[in-house]
Specification:
about 10% helix, Glutaredoxin, 26-stranded parallel sheet
């Protein structure tokens, strides 16, 4: 009912006026529908903190005053965007653990640690499939935990409905996953992979994860799955693995399967391919498959093996497109330094540049087949647009006749460009190549005149090649030998930098990972690596950061308090035993630079601190 204010004169409209009024009201209603009033501002979801102390006697309610004392209590609680779940450092919790809920953009769920001390441990029995599981969940960060056990996976992030976004794993130690016989490569220590072809992942970060010891396949694997994928299925996007290590695994070290715009950087893998007999495939240390615009940069691989073929360090595999392998260090491998493969597809527009390869092909069987650089195709595959440039290769084959570079690849398009490389070999045969090949501007160091095989021709000299227009601007010189030093010292002076989440920032972490790996390859008698920290008191977060680094090569990094730290940028100094300065750097230095400098002065590593593979426990169960 319409109320008319007193004193207001209303004339009843005639028919025409009445129609006009109706039309006016309808028009106003239409305009209002097209321009609704602004929605009220959405408030941020309330953030809650929950605590777990598995050493507590009482069950508790998850508060800081009364924490839960078992993972099952937390697992029964559905977490919401913005929530934090923190386990008390220095405690052990019986797993497995599968926390519930998903975060939202800008409001992640974080599973982390609190207090000061060793990382809190989640320990799963051998009857569990995995120690930690996320299924169809997104917008999570998991950090600062020690995770072990399970028979198929250590950490398993998966789902069957996607896409799944923002999955971050940081500052984790994942280890000792022992199970039964595996039937595919979709298993291992840290696996982010689909449980259905209908899911893919976007924005995955694995940063500062150390993965060690498994008789399952992979150390760190993102993508893939054991499905017969169709070419039009969406790849995973924006996957980045950095500052991480893998060692003592039966299969691959660190791999990207079916990803795009992704990378593996400043990481290390050793003692990969430890399976005693070939099972579901042949392993490599760090590699990519069906990867679009992927980069493998600044990594180190050594002590790699395989019971079959491969057993190498770095690999651009079939159906990779626009991939780059650069600034890596591969040494003391049973197989190759770098391979480029194609099978059934064209591997296109690849770059292999500025890598350091020393003492690869330690297996006589693999050395003869693969060399240090191996290009191979099968099943109708071909290589298109490959450039191999500015790499340094030191080749010391254990069997006569093994060439440093081997290619029997089919080439689709321009010849493979082999430019500006330095190859030093104790055997004169530099390359054995059947593919279209365009070498120029290379340096060959041998004690006997270098020799080359192109196609069906017999061994050719450098001069003979140059007369035919091949190897222009290339030259040969003798090997330069020097007496190795008895011992060296590395000092690195750097104040702490923590990230916004209270963890060690990526830059300092990357440098410490490089130095930790290098220190673990030599006995302390031969190489001493000192981290000079400010004399001030460290914050709890800084103390935790240094303690967490000690899980790999314990004690390899020697912490020294420096009362007068150098001003300015961080510095790394390489010193002789008597304190003479041999080298100095004022910014980040990767494994190739530091490892190459130390090896040139000190000689091959003795690997005295490298952790050895532990046998699978007899109680290990079969995968579920």
């Amino acid at each position: 009912m319409m109320r008319i204010p007193s004193g207001f004169h209303l004339e009843m409209p005639d028919c025409a006026a009445h129609l006009a009024c109706i039309l006016c009201l309808a028009c106003a209603a239409r305009v209002a529908a097209q321009n609704p009033p602004p929605a009220p501002a959405q408030e941020d979801p309330p953030a809650h903190e929950y605590f777990i102390d598995c050493s507590a006697q009482a069950e508790g309610d998850g508060s800081s005053a009364h924490p839960w004392n078992a993972l099952a209590q937390a697992e029964a609680h559905p977490f919401a965007p913005g929530d934090t779940i923190a386990l008390k450092r220095g405690t052990d919790c019986k797993g497995p653990f599968a926390p519930q809920g998903s975060g939202a953009p800008g409001h992640i769920i974080r599973l982390t640690a609190y207090g000061v001390g060793l990382r809190p441990a989640i320990v799963a029995p051998s009857t569990a499939r995995q120690a930690l599981l996320l299924f169809n969940q997104q917008y999570w960060q998991i950090d600062s935990l020690d995770i072990s056990g399970g028979n198929t996976y250590g950490v398993f992030v998966t789902g069957d409905t996607g896409p799944l976004h923002h999955l971050y794993l940081k500052n984790l130690y994942v280890h000792d996953v022992y199970g039964g016989k595996f039937h595919n490569k979709d298993n291992g220590l840290v696996v982010v992979g689909p449980s259905s072809m209908n899911v893919y992942f976007d924005d995955v970060l694995i940063d500062g994860v150390d993965a060690a010891r498994t008789n399952q396949w992979a150390g760190i694997l993102v993508g893939g799955g054991s499905f017969p994928y169709k070419d039009d299925k969406q790849r995973n996007t924006n996957v980045h693995i950095r500052n991480s290590t893998v060692h003592d695994v039966y299969g691959d070290g660190i791999v990207l399967f079916r990803d795009e715009d992704s990378s593996i950087e400043n990481s290390a893998a050793w003692e990969t391919g430890m399976q005693p007999t070939q099972d579901v495939g042949t392993p490599n240390a760090i590699w990519t498959w069906t990867c679009l615009r992927c980069t493998v940069s600044g990594n180190e691989a050594y002590l790699t093996d395989s019971p079959g073929i491969d057993g190498g360090a770095f690999d651009i595999d079939w159906d990779d497109q626009d991939n780059t392998v650069e600034n890596n260090y591969a040494h003391d491998t049973q197989g190759y330094c770098i391979a480029v493969f194609a099978a059934g597809y064209v591997t296109s527009d690849s770059r292999v540049q500025n890598n350091l390869c020393i003492d690869n092909g330690l297996s006589p069987r693999l050395a003869v087949l693969q060399g240090a650089v191996y290009l191979h195709t099968w099943n109708g595959g071909a290589i298109h647009g490959l450039t191999i440039e500015s790499n340094r290769i030191e080749w010391n084959p254990r069997v006569p006749g093994a060439a440093a570079i081997v290619s029997d690849a089919a080439v689709d398009g321009p010849p493979i460009a082999f430019t500006g490389n330095t190859v030093q070999s104790t055997w004169p045969l530099i390359y054995r190549v059947n593919a279209p090949w365009n070498p120029s501007g290379n340096t060959y160091r041998t004690d006997i005149a270098p020799a080359f095989i192109l196609g069906s021709t017999r061994s050719l000299s450098l001069a003979a090649l140059q007369r035919t227009g091949i190897e222009q601007n290339s030259h040969a010189s003798p090997i330069l030998n020097s007496k190795p030093a008895s011992s060296l010292r590395i000092e690195t002076a750097n104040d702490f930098l923590l990230d916004s989440d209270g963890l060690l920032a990526p830059g300092p972490r990357a440098q410490l990972i490089v130095l930790r790996s290098l220190a673990g390859q030599y006995s302390s008698r031969r190489l001493r690596v000192e981290v000079l920290l400010p004399a001030r008191d460290l914050s709890p977060a800084e103390e935790n950061a240094m303690r967490d680094l000690n899980d790999v090569h314990p004690g390899a990094l020697r912490i020294v308090r420096d009362p007068s730290p150098a001003a300015g940028a961080p510095v790394i100094r390489l010193l002789s035993a008597d304190g003479k300065l041999l080298g100095e750097w004022h910014d980040f230095q990767n494994a190739a630079t530091l490892g190459g400098a130390v090896r040139a002065l000190l000689g091959p590593p003795d690997f005295s601190l490298t952790q050895t593979r532990e046998p699978a426990p007899e109680s290990a169960g079969s995968p579920q």
